[in-house]
Amino acid sequence: MWLNASCLLEFQIPVPSPFLLKLRPRSGRNQWIAREEYILSPSAPVNEFTDMFGNLCQRLVAPAGNFSVRTSVYVETADSSDTAPNAPFIEVQQLPDDTLPFLYPSRYCESDRFTEMAASLVRGYSSGYDQCTAIVEYVRNTIEYTPGAGQQIISATELNQLSAGVCRDMAHLGIACCRALSIPSRMVVGYLEGLVPMDLHAWFEVYVGNRWYTLDPTQADMNGGRIAIAYGRDAADVAIFSQFGNPVELLNMKVTVEQMSGPNY
Amino acid sequence: MWLNASCLLEFQIPVPSPFLLKLRPRSGRNQWIAREEYILSPSAPVNEFTDMFGNLCQRLVAPAGNFSVRTSVYVETADSSDTAPNAPFIEVQQLPDDTLPFLYPSRYCESDRFTEMAASLVRGYSSGYDQCTAIVEYVRNTIEYTPGAGQQIISATELNQLSAGVCRDMAHLGIACCRALSIPSRMVVGYLEGLVPMDLHAWFEVYVGNRWYTLDPTQADMNGGRIAIAYGRDAADVAIFSQFGNPVELLNMKVTVEQMSGPNY
Amino acid sequence: MWLNASCLLEFQIPVPSPFLLKLRPRSGRNQWIAREEYILSPSAPVNEFTDMFGNLCQRLVAPAGNFSVRTSVYVETADSSDTAPNAPFIEVQQLPDDTLPFLYPSRYCESDRFTEMAASLVRGYSSGYDQCTAIVEYVRNTIEYTPGAGQQIISATELNQLSAGVCRDMAHLGIACCRALSIPSRMVVGYLEGLVPMDLHAWFEVYVGNRWYTLDPTQADMNGGRIAIAYGRDAADVAIFSQFGNPVELLNMKVTVEQMSGPNY
Amino acid sequence: MWLNASCLLEFQIPVPSPFLLKLRPRSGRNQWIAREEYILSPSAPVNEFTDMFGNLCQRLVAPAGNFSVRTSVYVETADSSDTAPNAPFIEVQQLPDDTLPFLYPSRYCESDRFTEMAASLVRGYSSGYDQCTAIVEYVRNTIEYTPGAGQQIISATELNQLSAGVCRDMAHLGIACCRALSIPSRMVVGYLEGLVPMDLHAWFEVYVGNRWYTLDPTQADMNGGRIAIAYGRDAADVAIFSQFGNPVELLNMKVTVEQMSGPNY
């Protein structure tokens, strides 16, 4: 499936302000970036680097005044995400080195506090993928998905005491429980075709059966093309923009995702 | 200063259990590892790799029964840690890329919740090192250092509501406040000469004045040689051992640090 | 300066053949990729990864038949390359770690065989940048630049016995001599605005005065915008395509570089 | 098998001279460093870092006068190196990313010039390991192993025109031919138990059958414990010491390898 996706951010900047952006999706085994656009207006010197998780990050000082960031990508991706009932748990000693950071508790996924809860949620399920989907079912059934409701980022333990959250929060709770079972779990921020209302989206991936699988507590099925923008341990790692110093105003944010035909040759 | 330091861990392992150890200090700009020993008893196949923070990590499956890990290092290090009154704050856009992960909130250092508190603690101090020492003073004066008191790891926000904690907890609170000021701050686990009672120790480092400086809320001054074993965002990254699966019993842990003369040639 | 550059490769593939491509320029301190296109026709699954030098590499199996790769970039870059008369030599012990691989001899830059020649070329010049430009002058004056003449890649020692070579060969000779003076030197493949005849181009960079500077033995001055596509030790590292297995036919290769106005907002 | 190995280097240094050393073997899947010693005399500030191939490298400025480097390791390693008749060739598109640098020609392994020769050497052998051993047989039978004969490093094409070489040269020729067949091949410098006369040794590894295998053109069989000190593309990457600036005198070099019983508990 070919998708065209875009994200527009418009800021009002009182004084020149350092930003760290993560808005350049990378081609990987699951997606091919065939066209990409990244327009800063006004333009500003940028230092791009790769972070610990392989994300391309853009560092810049936004000039005072109106400042906009407009990115778009044209991507080939799968029509739906793979599922893998019965995909087995991978013993810690067999995990690839680069999955290990995703076993530990992180800012918004306090997996060290979910040992008992996770164990009770997966009782009777076979180890691995089926445990993860049991956890996702719990999150989906327990937490009311309320797009747009989340301003302050809350953690898995905080969400677990509430009844409602955004996609990011629900991913955090799913991640915390999966990690509590020693299943590597990572946060993904990206685009999901057909999301209602359209916005940037967050979901998570688990490493079972020797590969990463996509899980999404906000969606009843795994249909819809996805474009991953950034990976990390939780929302602290994958913010599409971080701004330092005096607060700036985000005037406008607009996200689009359209299905396209393939490139014309 | 030449130090000889050792750490002995003795476990009773009911069933073969995966471990991840971080007990091989690296030579760096501040310490030279002249001799090192790392004995597993009984011996077991180990996969050693480098994590995202540059720590050498050892992965193995400990066999059932008594299992001990005995490490020692003979190291040249400074007699005391550098201090740098007035060392300036480095603007985010000028920071080296590899300091950036240490700006974000992490599991036990919820810096996103300390913006106001940190600002109030450093009012009147010049930006940079002096802000950090003001924060360390606050932690030292507010939290009673109670070595050995900490079983469950608590976070900076949790510690801030209590009156007592271990070195690790106090470092977390210091880190959370420094990061809230956009100063990169990282956890260090290691040896400190002369620590009473002797144990592994935790402190933190801040990046100001274009280098990392050592801070230690548990110590009245910066005297004493230090050997860094592992670096990370907080205790979740620098555990000297993580064990997965059924719990095992840590029967004994013994740490020694002695000052030595230099090597005989 | 805004440049629009493109590269088209058309192959006739007898049997499915593995390719490794390096055709996705990265944003860095000197260039900002504002728009990029990378079209495979027919499309094929690609695995993109980052190599040791930070280049984004694309691995794929080209299907039998006609296969084309069409890439374009729209980039903000400098109008001309910085020069730095008198920029000093950096002592080896002060060099950043990531410049060190560019001190050693490599396949086509046998710097270990150029110690005497390099010393004689730079006699009387102050250490650093001025030595490098003396070497570039020698290459420019000694070797006749014959675009399109090079099929087999020849090395610096081989070129030094000939009177003519392509840009790649001349860069190799320059690199070999600079490395022989312990100056880190790296190969760059990319686009050069105004190159006659238009083609992909190769030049090199040297690390003096605490940064990388561009040198180009084929050009009388450093005017013209440049877009770096890949960095490496020599041509062996920066081939824009490597093909494995039975030979395939490159039917057509077309490169364009146009100066543009900036993006319309 | 437990080995105790040591390497002593004694220099006479006329003026302070930068050195880059690679003398700290790492634990890996095949060897466990249980004890290690690294003594500089006189001691000097060292900056240790990890190079592109994962080797720990030590950078320092040796003071004028007598300067010695004394390293020893106590290591658990296999009694002999695995062999794998029939282990299959891995198609380029299936190779792990980190094996790819070892497919390309390098300074002393001009694999691009060995396509025909390699093809003719392996005619009739099944693709993969058996081709590699055919190449090793050719090198062993064609080149007279003359320990101690090699001062200047010569390349595979140069050796191929001679009748005699040292272990390093013979490894280069083996590597060049294997790479010419698209088999990743890397140089190893290390210790070999029982080597006559005892010295540091060089051999190579090939990636077939989904792992690295050891090959050694100088040895009739694969018996003897090995300790890898450094990995790279060829001798240019794995020099145990590189010295920059005015030449220094290596007064003495002594290598020992002894078989030991395991550690006493």
From TrEMBL, chains A, B, C, D:
Keywords: Hydrolase, Protease. It comes from the Bacteria. One of its GO terms (biological process) is proteolysis. It holds the Pfam family Transglut_core. SMART domains: TGc (SM00460). The keyword Acetylation does not apply. This is Transglutaminase-like enzyme, putative cysteine protease. It comes from Arenibacter palladensis.
